[in-house]
Amino acid sequence: MDLTRSLPEREVLLSGSRTRFWRAALALLISVLLVIFLLFVTLPVVSLFLRISPEAFFRSLAAPVVLDALSLSLVTATVSTAIVVLFGTPLALVNARRDYAGRELVDTLTDLPMVLPPAVAGLALLMAFGRRGVVGQYLDVFGIQIAFTTLAVVTAQVFVASPFYIRQARASFEAIDRLYEDAARTLGASPGTVALRITIPLAWGGLVSGAILSFARALGEFGATIMFAGNFQGRTQTMPLAIYTTMQGDMNAAISLSIILVVISFAVISAVKIVTRRRY
What we know:
The chain is mostly helical.
């Protein structure tokens, strides 16, 4: 350090050096924590791909348990998502555009499946729609059984996945400028026409994102499904349930199903990001 500088100048230089040092230390700490976190998240996923060869992976895909679980999961998750979109869109639109008594309670009940433990959700569905349930006992009189059937899988998926779509749909509807809707009404458009021709098209990106998230949640549902629908191959055994079953005797099949779900999950996240980016 130049000793010819005045004391205030030396203090300014020392202060600047300390600031740069602490900034560098903070940046290093953040970098280390980021690397540790990324390793923690990615290492288990990468391990799935490292523990099975391509030959074993494709050979496992031909196993009946894998094919049955894959086809059942895709079909039930698609049906569940369609039901959620069909019934959830009007509910989200009403809650976004109408102020009525009990709206906060409706919102709370709509979000409740997101925070319920899966086992509680499954038991609740069983107590409601089981053969001796509150509603199921009356359905049983007409020979209608829901529990431990494929319909139970769809019911469980709808129950746990619906909040993901409804929350996203409501947020998308609330983000729309009401000026467009008001202009359509002044031109004589009915409420239904406004919703179908103005509101829904403007919120389309958010609705698609919500539907994709709902599909992914339905596809990965485990706890409520095994409690309410059981674990019967070809009838109620979805991919998460098949993973739980096959890992006890056929690890390659379990890993193969897990890899498929990882790929689908990655595709879902990518799709949501692309749709969201296009909205802005």
